[in-house]
Amino acid sequence: MSIAVTPHPPPAHSSPHSLSNPHSLSFLLHQRPPLSIIHQLHAHTITSTNPQNPTSTSLYNSLLRAYSRSPSPLTTFSLYNYMLTNGTPLDHYTLPFVITACSFLSSLPHGLQLHGCAMKLGLFSDLYVQTTLLNMYASCSTMDCACQLFDRMEQRDLVSYNAMIAQLARAGLPKMALEIFREMVSNRLVNPDGATMVGVLLACAQVGSVKLGMWVHGYLAKIGGFDSNVVLSNALVDMYAKCGDAISARKVFDKMNTRDGVSWNTMISGYSKNGCFLETLDLFREMLRERVRVDEVTIVGVLSACSQLGALELGDWIHTYMEKHKLKYNVIVCTSLIKMYAKCGNIDKAYEIFSGLPCKDALVWNAMIGAFAMHGHACKALSLFEEMHASDVRPTPVTFVGVLCACSHGGLVNEGRKYMHDMVNKHGIKPNIKHYGCIVDLLGRAGLLDEAQKLVESMPIEPDAVLLGALLSACKVHGNVELGEKVGKRVLELDPHNSGNYVLLSGIYARSGRWEDAAEVRKMMNDNGVKKQPGLSRIEVDNVVHVFSMADWSHPMSEDIYSKVDEMVERLKLAGHEPNTNVVLIDVEEDEKEQLLGLHSEKLALAFGLISVKDSQPIRIVKNLRVCDDCHSAIKLVSKIYSREIIVRDRLRFHHFREGQCSCGDYW
Ligand code: ZN
Ligand code: ZN
Which CATH superfamily is domain 431-527 in? Predict the structure, then answer.
């Protein structure tokens, strides 16, 4: 299948003779020579031109074409002007090359001028000229002009359809792209080709329409031969991944006859964005085995998976790999590294990367402020914000999410109010739902439930389930059944599929002994087909990530792990730890509750960590939900009894346990 992305240029004349022959010059210019060679050929053309007999237009066209694709597209314009003053006749190939240079430079004024020239010279009716103008308008971000031009075209061919579909998809107008595609198919004037489908798949990916994407896949399968078309297969992988179907994406990936770097990167970031973090790392290892070149895009995808898994050793290894292979440290890569180190619990290393960056943009500052906030280092986050301010980097809405989150995790109520005020009045940033969420969380944690409720009622945007969930959680912590009931019902209406809110509300009832209401909420959860999200804890040992669920016996070392748990529970009791059975929401006998507590996934991961992690190293655990009160106080004591540093990341933040204390100050 052929791919026609750009209009076909005039055919090259393949007669490599001496430079005095214009054909051999054209041939040389078609080989994409470096800029210095183009200059030489250009000079040669001009000096050898007889003023009485202007050089053939086709030779100038070849020069224009070479310049328009070179690192110096601006020269195309001066050469074009030279042709005009020199009286060289123009043909319908001349203008498109100059227009293409406008596309590369995104220069609308030049483009408009050329559009006028095309009209004046009577070349506008040429389809090739029209299509390059269309691409030019799209590249200059004037999609409406491109659409107008397309609408007015009296005749359309495959190339003009492909250009329009691809440009609309690239401009983030996927629905319009699909509309044009439907028109193209229903007119039956031209048959779509591979390039059409690349544009259509890009549009499907943006709309998230796996159904249409599958239709395209079927269509391609019927024509056959796309397995060996890398660009098209990559677009299919990307479409499936972006529509949330990582399994189908992998199937296409596996069937590809040849893969390029883009194929691997698309699949790796596709896995990572779909939450298939272990698969991301497996595929990355395969990529290394097959010696495919790793670039910055690969690194960002893999680092994101490491962050989610808390795979610090692998993240560290990638950092070293980057240094060894001299990969570029651009802002995006550095931001990913900062986030990875922070999310894997090594905040010092995150700060080291941050400090080492000579030019920091808002993204980098935001990442570091957010990192300090997540680790509960409220003061550091706030002083970093002041530093950002002093270095004249304008804060963004995300910056303030970090700042307010720091206040919330640090219990800094007055500071939080002040920063929210400054954000609006000093920085002119309108608060969004996340900012309100942080403030409600801040007030709720501090027990200022009335103020939180008033804020929710008076804010100009509708509260979302996340915000109300935070308030609900505060109601549970502070034992406010009345408000909890009200907020709980509202949040369940807004988001009936989130198990966490059912658990919170039934917990609020259970805590005040309203077992029947608690049971009613659990029944509602069942009726709505919502499953409680299972608690998972991960721990990385020697580059391997081990995952534990509650009462999990799947680990090969389960025997040892469970005897370590027994030992832990015994030593905890001796140290005076009383299991907090309040956190078990099921209506069961006390000793049974105690047993369930002992089998929480983080305790299994902790027992495994005590066995497998070297004494000199901290034990790092990543939990997908909030750590329960009982595990929190148990881990505090374990850090003292076993003299171990334990770092736990839960759904929202970090807990650094050392010598019987936690960095969160029991405020989480
Ligand atoms: Zn627990
Ligand atoms: Zn803590």
Answer: Tetratricopeptide repeat domain (1.25.40.10)
